[in-house]
Amino acid sequence: MKSTFALAGIALALCTLAPAQENTDRVVIPARNSTRPRKVTASTMQGSITVKGYNGKEVIVESSGTTARSNRPATVDGMRRIDVPRGLSVEEQENQINIRVSPPGHGGIVITVPTDTSLDLHTMSGSITVEGVNGEIVLDSMNSPVTATNVSGNVLAHTLNGAIKVSMDRVDATKPLSFITLNGVIDVTLPPDYKGTVKMTTHNGAIYSDFDIRLGGGVITQSNSSGDGRFKVRIGGENGYSGTINGGGPEATFKSHNGNIYIRKKK
Fold it and tell me: What's the total number of domains in the chain?
């Protein structure tokens, strides 16, 4: 069963919608009995996305800047002007929650979720911040930084222009990690017992780590056009370097065109 909690310009149903503060909308999605794991998907064209984990059962969405502004009088003949949400949509079906903010809504979204929640977050122009969540986490920003603190599970983070900073408490030993930016620093902290096969590439930067990374890849053979039948061996370069941490495991990709890469051991 699919429930629509808020839709631009349409009367709201089956939800709690109340102004948390001026020009801020608040939607509460109640907990439902479901055998499916909880997943929150959120996207916005302009504006930040912030997700915080907590010990409750409900998902709470707060969005600023989505209520229609008007320069018309607030009251006329004792009647109050009704300002409806514009651009905010929240839908739920079988524990899968889909949140969208589209123009003319340009405000940021703050989402409070139960700790055990998977995330799929996308923004064209706005930062993404996640804290205290355990699950499959996808973070995709076009022109802003991506930050995740005290998260567990697996993280796939991408931004075109911006830094990536992630601190993980635990890593799912069966799933890959990925941290990719064109222009920005990648700074990732992993638990000391993390086991993985890392692939690291930076064209204009350096790679630093306090893990004991056993380099074993990044060696490429290329045909030699000189006609002598020999091959040219190249180490690193465009394809970067690969190695193992604590004996190896699922693949972890670290890639920046312009920026340093830091792979830190959690203290």
Answer: 1
